[in-house]
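Predict structure. Input: Chromosome transmission fidelity protein 8, 149 residues.
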Amino acid sequence: MPAIPLHPPAASRTPSIPNPLPQLLQTPSGLAIVEIQGTLNSTLSAPQMGPHGSIPLGKLSFPLYDPLAAVQNTAWQKLVYLYVGRHQRLTGEVRKLGKPLAVVRKRGGNAGVSDDGGEGREAMEIVEVVYYKVLFAHRPEPVGGGVEG
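Output follows.
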């Protein structure tokens, strides 16, 4: 079985090349993934879509989050809103993943050269470790038209 070297994150967090992947979800406790139990239907046409065919979902809100609260206070994780467009709101919560996920990318520079001088092996770099997911398990609720997405 072939092996690919995996390296810890680089000291500088600024990418040397532009990242074609969509931005990751940032919560008050770090990166998270979004789990929506259902189907999202979009009426967006191709010109309205983001780069690489991404679809903007809406606005993510943590109504119970207080930046002045103690780090150990996780009450804010019990309520999360995802406003989809101007007329729907999903209610969810933040949950810790059973096993953390690593976000990796190809290492820039001399990625094809191994430490022993061999050619042909790609090197991967850990970009971030994801410990949480935002879970939306209920049907959307209708909301007024004043919400900006």
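The mean pLDDT is 73.
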